Amino acid sequence: MKIANRKSQIANFSVPGFKAAGISCGVKKNGNKDLALIYSAVPAVAAGVFTKNKVKAAPVLLDMGRMKKGFCQAVIINSGNANACTGKKGMEDAARMVIAVEDALGIKKGLAMVSSTGVIGQNLQIDKIEKGIPKLVASLSSKGWNDAAHAIMTSDAFPKFAFEKCRIGGKEISVLGIAKGAGMICPDMATMLAFLATDAAIEQKTLQAMLKKAVDNSFNSITVDGDTSTNDTALILANGKAGNKQFTIHSSQFTLFCEMLERVCLQLAKMIVMDGEGATKLLEFNVIGAKTDSDAKKVAESVANSPLVKTAFFGEDANWGRIIAAIGRSGAYMKEEKVNIYFNGVPVVLKGLDAGREKDAAKTVKNENICIRIEMGLGKGKKTVWASDLSYKYVKINAAYRT
Amino acid sequence: MKIANRKSQIANFSVPGFKAAGISCGVKKNGNKDLALIYSAVPAVAAGVFTKNKVKAAPVLLDMGRMKKGFCQAVIINSGNANACTGKKGMEDAARMVIAVEDALGIKKGLAMVSSTGVIGQNLQIDKIEKGIPKLVASLSSKGWNDAAHAIMTSDAFPKFAFEKCRIGGKEISVLGIAKGAGMICPDMATMLAFLATDAAIEQKTLQAMLKKAVDNSFNSITVDGDTSTNDTALILANGKAGNKQFTIHSSQFTLFCEMLERVCLQLAKMIVMDGEGATKLLEFNVIGAKTDSDAKKVAESVANSPLVKTAFFGEDANWGRIIAAIGRSGAYMKEEKVNIYFNGVPVVLKGLDAGREKDAAKTVKNENICIRIEMGLGKGKKTVWASDLSYKYVKINAAYRT
Q1: DSSP conformation letters of A267-325
Q2: How far apart are CA B34 and CA B26, in angstroms?
Q3: Burial of B349 (0-12, 13-18, 19+ CB in 10 A)
Q4: Residue A371 belongs to what H/E stretch?
Q5: Does the CB of A362 have a partner CB in chain B at under 8 Å?
Q6: Is the pLDDT of residue A190 over 60?
Q7: Which of A208, B7, B149, B372 is 20 to 30 Å from A14 by CA-CA measure?
Q8: How far apart are CA B225 and CA B329, in angstroms?
Q9: Is A396 part of the contact surface with chain B (CB cutoff 8 Å)?
């Protein structure tokens, strides 16, 4: 999909007390940036959400261990190699990365984390990465987010960046995020990574709960092809530089901050969908009236993951039968005769039957953005997910990548 | 995929006491055959397995009701319209079909069943079907299976037919099957249908158990795109004309007949996979050593349904990382360091790590038939599933069908 050049925007934003950098160290053969660093002037409260895939890459395992402390001052990220399915050597390499960056920055041991993304099953070019770290640290700048956003890209067609600033509890508070991901083209260019930085002061457990909720409603509500990666990671660092009184759970400040964090995450998540390989449409599946929220989730995911539904939208075919069949096999409780379906407000199914609006429906599916509203007519359960369509180009990219 | 012309084979086989027919009644606009009939000279013991999709087409609901009697003498099948999502009118139309066929054949009320396959959400052209029934009945012949196999086709590139004859308990016993299906291109050309006829004498509950097992190991072990239809149906009629002593459960005759039935179903199922839209490869995923059979099933289905795995095989890319990632997200218990993966006997992963046989693996994935063996190294759980690859043509067919 066509995306405006966001470079100038990225260059304009920063968060007090944070610096970022992105350089090329030679892991990517084409010379593109492949090593990024995020650094906080002081140890920041940290929270993380990691892949549920039972095959976890070495950097994920390392971070999950380090996260128990609840503090982090630097995150180093390489692209081009996932350091996954690499056994003991992989764990050693991940450890070498954090040690090298701690040494170069002169920060306390145990305060750096690491992410990797790229090919699965090959050993990391750890020597190249270690050699690159001095240059990486020297490049740190409060305006370095653009370079960092580029250095974490793999198959991404564009860098992903989002920023918000709000006055909460009398203080200006910023949230900045960068992300990578363009479908799960695992293992070669797998993985959704997101890194968030805020100057808010937040207690660790509260931050973890906030991040979990924001990730569920954004990155965990998008689907490009139903696969999940060995390396998926979302990290947030909160360095307290805004000088606010620590947010406590369920306060009004807490709610405002949660919403801001969620909006930033959702912006990034939608960019990942729009960058889905070969995507030509942004599809929003809005399920309401399911018996439970859990049922709504089943329906939304079954429909949004169906290759038949996705190819139909690519073909601009208002093919509601594929949607109702996907609802029926979702496992959710349903009464066929209660289901209504709308495409951008045009009814296509009413009470389980053809709404007779084929012509209007055919017109609206030509839009780039299509909101598919599914009313189950049963209860209060709801869930929204976003997905791309499935195009020739998806198959082409995924079949031909390594050849 | 290239399939030999099976017409002559089909024409040669029949089952004592059964006749079949297939004609065109005008439901399909292109004039192709669209109405089939299977008839037993005497009321046959019947068993059926129906779609688990909560959205069930009218003929499925009608058959599920009639199946309670355990007897059937005729099955009428139309293609071109699924009679699904058609409400009360759909139920009335399905009832009219069975009544018309019972009248025309002069058989007892309640002994006919019906299946439909085709477009969802449009009313059946019941008048055309009723008008066609006299000609259909007049066409009945013991050699009519070829016409019937053609008349149930929708997007199928070729008719699907399988036959076996064995001596069991001193009697010659035949099993004949026809099927349709080529991926679940729901709703336009959805649905897997299979109709089996045997002259064995079998008690109804035993027949139902046999069919369920055979379907689980064949039609329920193939995946073209992970979708299931509103109309999926497998029916078997056993008319007892072979004159055998009724099979009892767990007898040696029972086992021999079960194996024969399973082989016939598996032949039909593999033809459906090979006819998967745009399929260029027949993939066999053979999972062994999982903790439980249920875990093995999760692994096999997660891998075989992954669009990334399927596109990789289309691209002839020996991309084992996509397979190990799909195992990891399957929900099955796993130990990464115990997993071995082989492509046609070539090890690609040993103990969770790259086996270093990239060159041999790259060579073997150029075959049309690829056996992917996944050893979990944990227990005795096993499961085999068959799948097609995912090609450009799949997207093309499914995006462009109604336009």
Answers
A1: HHHHHHHHTSTT---EEEEEEEEESSHHHHHHHHHHHHH-HHHHHHHHTT---HHHHHH
A2: 7
A3: buried
A4: strand A369-375
A5: no
A6: no
A7: A208
A8: 18
A9: yes
Classify domain A7-274 at the CATH class level: alpha beta
Is ipTM strictly over 0.90? no
Name every chain B residue with its beta carbon within 8 A of the beta carbon of A56. Answer: 328
**Residues in chain B, total:** 403
Domain boundaries, chain A: 7-274, 282-400
Q: Is the Cβ–Cβ distance between B60 and B188 less than 8 Å?
A: no
* Residue of higher predicted confidence among A312 and A268: A268
Peptide bond into A187 cis (omega under 30): yes
CA distance B309 to A140: 39
pLDDT digits (tens, 9 = 90+) for B96-122: 999 999 999 999 999 999 999 988 889
A85 has a chain B CB within 8 A of its CB: yes
Pick the CATH number of B282-400 from 3.10.20.340, 3.40.50.720, 3.80.30.20, 1.10.150.130: 3.10.20.340
Q: How many CB atoms within 10 Å of residue A17?
A: 19
Residue-level pLDDT at A202: 94
| Catalytic residue from among B86, B117, B154, B191 | B191
Q: How many CB pairs under 8 A join A and B?
A: 207
The pLDDT, as a whole number, for residue A401 is: 47
In this predicted model, which residue has the larger pLDDT, B200 or B6? B200
Angle between the N-to-C axes of helices B126-138 and B87-105, in degrees from 0 to 180, rounded to the nearest 10: 20
Chain A residues in contact with B185 (beta carbon < 8 A): 308
The answer to whether B45 and B202 have CB atoms below 8 angstroms apart is yes
pLDDT, tens digit, 9 for 90 and up, residues A53-74: 899 999 999 999 999 999 999 9
Task: Choose, from A51, A117, A154, A191, the residue flagged as catalytic.
Answer: A191
- Among A358, A321, A399, smallest CA distance to B319 is for A399
Q: Which of A34-48, A174-188, A259-273, B145-159 has the lowest mean pLDDT?
A: A174-188
* CB nearest A395 (choices: B84, B229, B392): B392
Nearest to A337 by CA among B160, B401, B88: B88
Q: Residue A284 has which token pair?
A: 């929003």
Task: Tell me whether B391 touches chain A (CB under 8 Å).
Answer: yes
Record the tokens describing residue A397, joined without a space: 């990219």
Contacts of range B5-13, beta carbons closer than 8 Å, 24 or more positions apart: B6/B158, B6/B159, B6/B161, B7/B146, B7/B159, B9/B161, B9/B163, B10/B145, B10/B146, B10/B149, B10/B159, B10/B161, B11/B143, B11/B146, B13/B145, B13/B161, B13/B163, B13/B174, B13/B176
B307 touches chain A (CB under 8 A): yes
Q: Across the interface, do A326 and B121 touch by the CB < 8 Å criterion?
A: no
Give the helix/strand (H/E) hosting B46.
strand B35-50
Q: Is the pLDDT of residue A185 over 70?
A: no
Half-sphere exposure of A347 (CA within 13 A, CB side): 11
Count how many Cα atoms sit within 13 Å of the Cα of residue A113 in the half-sphere of its side chain.
31
**How is residue B220 annotated by DSSP?**
G
CA distance B307 to chain A (A): 7
CB contact under 8 A, A325 and B186: yes
Q: Find the mean pLDDT for residues A357-368.
A: 93
Say whether residue A398 is in contact with chain B using an 8 A CB cutoff.
yes
d(CA A224, CA A390): 8
Contact criterion met (CB below 8 Å) for A24 and A303: no
- What amino acid is encoded at B400 in this protein? A
Q: Report percent pLDDT > 90 for chain A.
A: 70
Let me know how long chain A is.
403
Q: Which amino acid, B63?
A: D
pTM, 2 dp: 0.83
- Using N-to-C axis directions, what is the helix angle for A87-105 and A58-66, rounded to 10°? 50
Spatial separation of the C-alpha atoms in residues A265 and A181, rounded to whole Å: 13
Asked about A248 being catalytic, the answer comes back as no
